Amino acid sequence: MSSCPERMKRWLLPVLALLLAASAAAQPRDLPGIGRAATPKEVAAWDIDVRPDFKGLPKGSGSVARGQEVWEAKCAQCHGIFGESGEVFNPLVGGTSADDIKTGRVARLDDKGYPGRTTLMKVATVSTLWDYINRAMPWTAPKTLSTEEVYAVTAFLLNLGGVVGDDFVLSDRNIAEVQARMPNRKGMTLDHALWPGKALGKPSKPDVQAQACMSHCPTEAAVASMLPEHARNAHGNLADQNRAVGAQHGVDTTRPAGAGSLPKPVATAAPVAAKPAAPMALLNKYSCTACHAVDNKLVGPPFREIAKKYAGRIDAEAYLAGKIRSGGSGVWGGVPMPPQSLGEAEAATIAQWLKAGALR
Amino acid sequence: MGQADKPGVPGRLIKAPENFIDAAGIRQVFAEAKAGRRSFLRNAFAVAGAAAAVPLVAAQTPPGGEGDPNILQLPEHGKGLGQPVATDGYGKPSKYEANVQRRQSPGLTQTAQASVSFAPLQSLFGIVTPSGLHFERHHQGWWDIDPSKHRLMINGSDPGLLKKAMVFTMDEIMRLPPVSRFHFIECGANSGMEWGNVAVPTVQYSHGMLSCSEFTGVPLRILLDLAGVDYRKARYVLAEGADGSSMTRTIPMELVESGEVLIAYGQNGEMLRPEQGYPLRLVVPGVQGVSWVKYLRRIEVGDQPWASKDEAVHYIDLMPGGLHRQYSSTQECKSVVTTPSGGQVLLDKGFYNISGLAWSGRGKVKRVDVSVDGGRNWRSARLEGPVMAKCLSRFNIDWVWDGKPALIQSRAMDETGYVQPNYRQLREVRGTRSIYHNNAIQTWLVQEDGEVRNVQLS
Questions:
Q1: Residue of B nearest to A107 (CA)
Q2: Which residues of chain B neighbour A213 with C-beta distances below 8 Å?
Q3: Which of A88, A198, A215, A242 to mutate to test the interface with B (most CBs of B within 10 A)?
């Protein structure tokens, strides 16, 4: 390098420095004492994902008939006997046709008159169903299904949608054939600019192109949509949802618009009284509301129904408090209620509330 | 009195982020909205000559003859002894601030464990969301996990993609050199109820699935380097949570390689809140919140995307023609005026500061314009510092309200030159039946009586 002209040195040195810096960044850092190798058993315990090419899918099988048994015992409470229920979640089944299975596109996705989108209308890859049922179902007891049960329930769900026949046995060997029958398998596009990487689809410009006009801009300054008057208080009193001091206060939506709904210009900020732990707060805290609602049936009976059933029973409060803590089954059907780990006083609060009629 | 006028029914107006309003619902709400517009036109514009309902100059005259009793009479807090230190080992806001709360939207979801609570944007200042007011989105309920038992695993969908699968404890992760960065997080479904029409009254419900924090953690890249990941082959990352839902999302390796994806344990100077994934969550700046996997237990590197439930069934965008856009993740440039905003009331004519938030998943906000006449004329607002990439920016602009109806809007532009579209521009390309990634310009109508309403323009 001694013969290197001074001029050349001036650009070569910075380039070398950059190259060195880049290679240093690419080298794994030496971090002694941080982390250890995972054992094969540990990886197997957690590595449960299944990809669209079925990498990760465990060997096994399950029939539609077996799936129906599992479904009725563990899935139907939330999803309905035919996967059609929208009580707890969106319907899983409906809106697909035999023709969709041929074309790979669900025609009703382009039908503005069709009331909603079910899971089977949307899902393009059968691996997605298998993976999600395996990792997150049943809702209140995720990851308790055996591999055979996951195959069986997936088969039953596909049978409800007409994708497979009544005698079908879904397995790791024939799942690729099922993929070729998925009603919306050709319903996805990657042609958009919202994926922040290069390896997927085509990088493209944002699809919506707006301009920043500043004056006398073309506009349609007419109100086309606003909340109807009857929805004024649908989100509760907005006066209570805004700070009570400042340039703007909240509108009192318990009164009709204009009828004294506006606060006085100099409002006195009053502290909101702290409420004692309400039964509803406890029901939320201990996730009772994951299975029970006040008025309608979810996984378990409505609180109102429980209140009605034990209204005449003299020891209702003690009985209910005990049931909450010990759990039980058979009174309201076959689905067991697991024991709840809450204190006696808390169980008593809920029991008193149930005895008093389960009022909101 | 129609069915829709009965008490209790309106709460069912809107559906879950993943449950789009059905066509019948759209027709009903739209018809009612039109009826509301007629009465609005009668009430607000037809009586333009009538006296304004706003009490004027009341605040400028001292109440009582001699002066304000709040000045003339010494208050208790000036004459007595206050509270001692550490009365509250972890302090709370003033009791006068009890209205500033996260809230659920009634009727949005059937169960509170797979639901959303919205941040009260109308009451926040600056760009940081207090951790206790950060919006929540749970897919199977939240947990308070013992950090001494929490583990993070790194493995490959194919063992050839990395030198060795590894396991880390929280203690080990927290020994590594941390970085702290301010970023916004927005749910892909934020504003999703309003693709077709106005559905909610306030900015809390229309835009409150948005928060911003200083996150502290370790670049994920450091751990992938340690595991010896082959970046030429492993172009995707799967992040997986430890809760019941075991949420999984695919992340492009480019974001990890750039060093901006963090495995975070800190938020606004303290540990993450349990509702935000304590003790460990992924931070993916600029990308919708569902990818910021909470209770993070595992990172898998792979050579293909995974089509997990929340990238194959939900968080997909329905286009005109019936095709869904999949893996749509970037949150495009967007802004909203937070004060004044829907459900509030201006107390008097005169001077106001219009304030709001702007953000972009592609970088820094470059400019925000504000209109008070429904988009006919615009003025550029003051962009308050610091302005950071993939972070909320606060804007302010002066406004003297003359007591006439006004249509307030904000329009943001980011450093890539992308301009936030209005509803017409957005719907021309994407139709009205999608749920996610609605970044249209928001309009607030200030009525003559000072009440502010959420509206959409034709």
A1: B322
A2: 378
A3: A242
Determine how β-strand B443-446 pairs with β-strand A188-189: unpaired
A residues 103..162 contacting B (CB < 8 A):
105-107, 109-110, 112-117, 119, 122-125, 127-128, 131-132, 135-136, 139, 142-143
* End-to-end CA, chain A: 85
Give contacts of A293 with chain B, Cβ < 8 Å.
Answer: 110
B134 interfaces chain A, CB cutoff of 8 Å: no
The CA-atom distances, in angstroms, between A177 and each of A54, A98, A134, B64, B305 are 12, 16, 20, 85, 21
- Which among B113, B198, B318 has CB closest to A227? B198
Rounded to whole angstroms, the Cα distance separating B258 from B254 reads: 6
Predicted local confidence at residue A348, as pLDDT: 84
The one-letter code for the residue type at B156 is: G
The per-residue b/e assignment along B409-433, b for 16 or more CB within 10 angstroms, e otherwise, is bbbbbbeeebbbbbbbbbbeebbeb
Which residue type, as a one-letter code, is found at position B300? E
Q: Identify the residue among B108, B229, B237, B246 best suited for mutation to test binding to A, counting A beta carbons within 10 A and taking the highest.
A: B246
C-alpha separations of B43 from B36, B38, B168 in Å: 10, 9, 64
Q: Is B44 on the interface with A (CB under 8 A)?
A: no
B410 in A contact zone (CB under 8 Å): no
Give the nearest chain A residue to B346 (CA atoms). A248
CA-nearest residue to A111 within chain B is B322
ipTM: 0.85
User: How many angstroms separate the CA atoms of A79 and A75, rounded?
Assistant: 6
Model pTM score: 0.82
Does an H or E element contain B220, and which?
helix B220-226
Query: CB–CB of B224/B301 below 8 Å?
Result: yes
- Strands B324-325, A188-189: pairing kind: parallel
DSSP string covering A36-94: EEPPHHHHHHH-----TT-TTPPS-EEEHHHHHHHHHHHTHHHH-TTS---SSS--SS-
Task: Answer whether A341 touches B (CB < 8 Å).
Answer: no
Q: Do residues A322 and A344 lie in contact, with contact meaning Cβ atoms separated by under 8 Å?
A: no
Residue A235 and residue B155: Cβ atoms within 8 Å?
A: no
Calculate mean pLDDT across residues B375-402: 97
- Percentage of residues in chain A with pLDDT exceeding 90? 56
- Check whether the bond before B201 is cis (ω within 30° of 0): no
**Taking Cα atoms as reference points, which of B239, B255, B288, B337 lies closest to residue B435?**
B288
B15-72 confidence digits (pLDDT tens): 434 444 455 554 554 455 445 444 443 343 333 333 334 444 445 667 668 899 999 9
Supply the Cα-derived Rg of chain A in whole angstroms. Answer: 30
Tokens, residue B289: 């919140």
- On the question of a cis peptide bond just before residue B386, with omega within 30 degrees of 0, the verdict is yes
Contact between B161 and B303 under an 8 Å Cβ cutoff? The reply is: yes
For residue B182, the surrounding DSSP H or E stretch is strand B179-186
At residue B113, the pLDDT reads 85
